[in-house]
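Issue: copy button drops trailing tokens. Both records pasted manually instead:
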Amino acid sequence: MSKPKPKVVSGIYAIHCIPLDKWYIGSSNNVTRRLDTHKRELANGSHNNLLLQKDYKEHGASSFSFLILIKDVPEDMLFAYEKCFMYKYDSVVKYKGYNQMFSTVNHRLFKQAYNDLIEKGYIDKQ
């Protein structure tokens, strides 16, 4: 009997370097698979984000957590939600995060995602 396949879930994920309190935020239509890819690349020393790879090598796997921040995000809203979480965690600020740029997102979609995340309690209203 074969193992049941895990449900494919879209969403926003984070990689957190605990000792440095630095964040990488990403989005995927299959967050479990995407996080597994990040883990494998970091362990193999082949991750394309050189800052993240450097800190992973320096601090070790046990210093990182891999999190799904929100699930079941509609595919057309993935980048808007991702950008909201990048703001929340300051992940594009070099000393706070590993993201190198914001996603290009339609302002209307960003505002819709931002308001939705406030309503769901993921982001505090500023």
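Record 2 (pasted manually too):
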Amino acid sequence: MNDEILDSQSAAGDELVPAAAERIGAFESLRVERVGRVGWLVFNRPHAGNAMDATMLHELESAWAMLDADPDVRVIVNTGEGTTFQTGLDVVELARNKDALREQSRRTKNATLRLSAWQCGVRKPVIAAVNGVCAGGGLHFVADADIVIASSSATLLDPHVSIGQVTAFEAIALARKSPMEATMRMALIGRHERMTAARGLQLGIISEIVDPPDNLRAAAQELAESIAKNSPAAMAATKRALWRALELGVTDACRGGVGDIVDLWGHSDQLEGPAAFAAKREPKWENI
């Protein structure tokens, strides 16, 4: 399936993380790096459309945890190596070695997936920079990101039903952020239609399109650096409150939000913010 999704696209391409990036983890299927205050989690299997094999499925939880715990990282960017973002489960490996994905099958059955930042409980802001095809299980990383930007050449599709599989987790998560009809169309039409970046922008799935595509990495870094200027503690509480709003009714979500507000009372950032504003200087935030 992954080869079909890729069509004639080349897996070669400029690296999306600049050479100045500092490697902060040793992974086989991912590249985890830091550029200033921005952490990068890069899918690094371009020869296979960045599909998730057993190794990547195992490494994702550790990579998210590493970036979330790093005091020097305030914002995380998730993207793909080469010209493909993420094409879901590596069905070639599944066909050849079903035992390799046994752990993933157990987690799917128990609804305890640990693929995306949301599923792993990441507190820091997460930007998905969709640099090409995003298909099937790759939609986890779009639906579960806090902000999504994409290159003008990016496309989204969900081919599950086209190979006799059920789409559930990804589409359910995506329906929280986009109109139900658009999600249903993608789920039911399968591999026979792709959503363009322009259409994703219209639907609110994507907040920014970058053109030319080669500028995506720089645009993601710039956006992340702007976000990183803010209070880490305040952003974590804000993120928690807003994601809760997607899971609860308005009343319960607001009550939960009150708890987030009160929990930050007395935090040093609440004093530092006004003081820095009054002094016309950059604030010195406390890391979380």
